Amino acid sequence: MAFIDDIKRSYLQGSMLMRLIYINIGVFVLLHVVVLIAFLFNMSGDKLLQWMELPSNLRLLLTKPWTLVTYMFTHYSLLHILFNMLWLYWLGRIFMEFFSSKQLAGVYLLGGLGGAVLYLLGFNLLPHFAGTNMHLLGASASVIAIVVATAVYVPDYKIGLLFLGEVPLKWIAIVTVAIALFGLEADNPGGNIAHIGGAIVGALFALRIKQGKDITRPLNAVIDAFVGLFNGRSFKLPKFNKPSKATRKAEPAAAKPSPTPPGTVSEEELDIILGKIKVSGYDALTDEEKDKLFKASRKRTP
User: Which domains does the chain have, with CATH numbers?
Assistant: First the structure.
């Protein structure tokens, strides 16, 4: 069908941001189609939803561990997915001005996992929630991770809001986290705990990026390895750490990589600095970033 072909082409040619939105919408539509068919045949479609949402009961989680990932792509309410996808689109576009597509996917996944972990810890360790069986679904933790990551990295970036005018991104993140904290006593404590977990991951990502470290790199390396396997390439375990002492001794001296010269600026750091200049101007750079840019320009001068 031409319609399906158009959707497939749009997905393959689209950005990572649009792919994440397509996946969420696709799961939403598929879920409702199955529920509708089950309803017409006097059957229950709730079982499919139960196989997608994340349970707070650890014993139940052991029977379906995949829900640690599937829950962050699953919505049942139309307003729930509409709000999350609009939020993801608006803030995801700002995120992409400073970071790569892989980093967007990494923060989305790590934010969802961070929300899941805090949700499970809260419902299994806090006395108030002891014995309570809840289920978690929705992309909110992942989206909030992207919001907070962007706000921590460029806190004074302003976006226009209806009736409020231009508001610095840091205040949007602060209000979002505050709503989650005060919402712990409301009707959706599990969702709000997950939101806080996503916010923590987002803040950690931005803070580590400012230190020249990317916490999404290991996850993206694993994803790339599996994608390569399905594309016909041999599977190789990604390496994250330095070789062991035994390995280094076995290598000839000439094969050892030379240490990185002090003061060297990586391409990733340079891209981030140039993206910041593009949006906020040179004056928005910190002294450290200006120094790095100066060193990089000297290195590239013939």
Answer: 15-212 (1.20.1540.10), 263-302 (no CATH)
